[in-house]
């Protein structure tokens, strides 16, 4: 396979409302929907829809949500032999309040995602070795991420780590990450540097580079992304759009980044493409349902280029 994704499954239960409630307040919602999502599943589907051959490893519950995810993976052509089913823990669930302007507030209940073990990760060595890129996030136990990064490092396989939900990371892990993709709040948590100015964004990215990350890509929503690697620091402009749902924006970016890198694109080219994928994603509702296919992205880029 071209890309292996080790990550999470979350069935997203989405409530649309004018705004999220304050403490002790009740707000009348305007809609309710259920969408398959989770950072791992979103990134796997994003890469697959952009033409990459993808395999996924993770854990589901033995329930109706788990069955739905297995169907999604099959429909998207994603290899699922390393997706395990837990007989006790439920499939992960995300509770999302989607505000009128497209911003969201999310609570996740990881469920079976946290039951994937380091021992089960070690059994993925052949699959990781046969891949050209490994993608991970932090909706699983950290020991799983550490174990998989160790295997990838030993096998010489590049690793994309999307550090979300953000938490402090050991320096030994950071040294094994090829591409780290925090957003502004995640950058601040990882570095202790407020991501409130261009200068601080650069300082934060450089701090992570000093800790061993080969390339830091800070995602900045409609403002694009900041790339810090051995060649220096570059800003890659974004594509402003009118957002309706930002739930899977970062995940679509990461899947697109991986898909473009294995096609031979430079980092800046891959980030530019991923910015377009993220922009398209936020114009649609849902997580996996919002993820675009390559022809849609190419048309979007052509329209932006011609000013149509």
Automatic annotation (TrEMBL):
Keywords: ATP-binding, Carbohydrate metabolism, Cytoplasm, Kinase, Lactose metabolism, Magnesium, Metal-binding, Nucleotide-binding, Potassium, Transferase
Pathway of action: Carbohydrate metabolism; D-tagatose 6-phosphate degradation; D-glyceraldehyde 3-phosphate and glycerone phosphate from D-tagatose 6-phosphate: step 1/2
Site description Important for substrate specificity, residues in chain: 10
Annotated binding of ATP, by residue: 183, 250-251, 275
Catalytic activity, EC: 2.7.1.229
Subcellular location, principal: cytoplasm
Pfam families the UniProt entry points to: PfkB
GO molecular function, one term: ribokinase activity
Residues binding substrate, per UniProt: 10-12, 38-42, 139, 251
PANTHER family: RIBOKINASE, SUGAR KINASE
Name the record gives this protein: Deoxyribokinase
């Amino acid at each position: 396979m071209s890309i292996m994704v080790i990550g999470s499954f979350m069935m997203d239960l989405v409530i649309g409302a004018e705004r999220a409630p304050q403490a002790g307040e009740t707000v009348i919602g305007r809609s309710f929907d259920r969408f398959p999502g989770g950072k791992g599943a979103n990134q796997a589907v994003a890469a697959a829809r952009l033409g990459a051959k993808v395999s996924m490893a993770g854990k589901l519950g033995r329930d109706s949500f788990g069955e739905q995810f297995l169907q999604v993976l099959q429909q998207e052509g994603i290899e699922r032999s390393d997706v395990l089913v837990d007989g006790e823990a439920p499939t992960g669930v995300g509770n999302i309040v989607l505000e009128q302007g497209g911003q969201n507030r999310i609570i996740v209940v990881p469920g079976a995602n946290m039951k994937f073990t380091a021992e089960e990760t070690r059994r993925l060595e052949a699959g990781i070795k046969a891949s050209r890129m490994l993608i991970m996030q932090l909706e699983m136990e950290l020991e799983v991420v550490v174990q998989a990064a160790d295997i990838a490092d030993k096998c010489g396989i590049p690793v994309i780590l999307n550090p979300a939900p953000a938490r402090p990371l050991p320096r030994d892990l950071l040294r094994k990450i090829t591409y780290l993709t925090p957003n502004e709040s995640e950058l601040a948590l990882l570095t202790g540097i407020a991501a409130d100015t261009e200068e601080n964004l650069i300082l934060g990215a450089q701090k992570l580079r000093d800790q061993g990350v080969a390339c830091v890509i800070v995602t900045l929503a409609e403002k694009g992304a900041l790339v810090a690697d051995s060649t220096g620091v570059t800003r890659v402009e974004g594509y402003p759009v009118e957002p309706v749902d930002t739930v899977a924006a970062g995940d679509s970016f990461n899947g697109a980044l991986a898909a473009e890198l294995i096609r031979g694109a430079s980092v800046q080219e891959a980030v530019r493409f991923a910015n377009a994928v993220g922009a398209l994603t936020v114009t649609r509702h849902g997580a996996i349902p919002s993820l675009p296919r390559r022809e849609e992205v190419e048309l979007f880029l052509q329209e932006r280029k011609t000013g149509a």
